[in-house]
Write a structure and sequence with these properties.
151 residues, 2 domains, binds FE2/S2 (inorganic) cluster, single chain, alpha+beta, DNA polymerase, domain 1, Ubiquitin-like (UB roll)
C-alpha cells in the first residue's frame, strides 16, 4: 500500500510500486484529466505537479510519489479556472484539447516559479508539451496573458 496526497486529499493505493503514476491517477483514482499520450515521457500530456514540480506522470513510478503531494489539472481548478485555464479559454487557444491538461499544469508551475516569465521562457517551458493541432503560438500568447491574472 502506498500513501500519498492527491489534490489535497490523502489517498492509499494498492498497486505495485513500479506502476506509472499516470495509471494510478486515471485507473485507480478516476482522475482522467491527465492524458495518456505517448506513455514514454515524450509528449507532456500526462504532466502533473509532484511536490510543486511539473513531472510527466507516465514515466514517474508510484514509489516516487510515496509520501508526496500530487496535484493534477483537476486540483488546479478546485475553485474555478486558474489564471492559465482562464486565459486559455479567453484566447480560445485549444483545438482538440488533448494536450491542454499537461500544458495547464506545466504553465502553472512556470508562473508559480517565475510570474514574470517572458515569451522565450514560456516557449522553452512548453517545449516538451506537444500539441498536434499546432496551437502552440496561441497557447504561448494565452500563458503570457495569464501573467496579469496571476495573484
Ligand atoms: S503520456 Fe506521458 S509524456 Fe506522453
Ligand atoms: S489542442 Fe489538440 S493537441 Fe493541442
Amino acid at each position: 500500500m502506498t500513501t500519498l496526497t492527491v489534490n489535497g486529499e490523502p489517498v492509499e493505493v494498492d498497486r505495485p510500486d513500479d506502476t506509472p503514476l499516470l495509471t494510478v491517477l486515471r485507473d485507480a483514482l478516476g482522475l482522467v484529466g491527465s492524458r495518456f499520450g505517448c506513455g514514454q515521457g515524450l509528449c507532456g500530456a500526462c504532466t502533473v505537479l509532484l511536490d510543486g514540480k511539473a513531472v510527466q506522470s507516465c514515466d514517474t513510478p508510484l514509489w516516487q510519489a510515496a509520501g508526496a503531494s500530487v496535484v493534477t489539472v483537476e486540483g488546479l481548478a478546485a475553485d474555478g479556472p486558474n489564471p492559465v485555464q482562464q486565459s486559455l479559454i479567453e484566447h480560445q487557444a485549444a483545438q482538440c484539447g488533448f494536450c491542454i491538461s499537461g500544458i495547464v499544469v506545466r504553465a502553472t508551475a512556470l508562473l508559480d516559479e517565475n510570474p514574470a516569465a517572458d515569451a522565450e521562457q514560456v516557449a522553452a517551458a512548453l517545449e516538451r508539451n506537444l500539441c498536434r493541432c499546432g496551437s502552440h503560438q496561441r497557447i504561448v500568447d494565452a500563458v503570457l496573458a495569464a501573467r496579469r491574472l496571476t495573484p
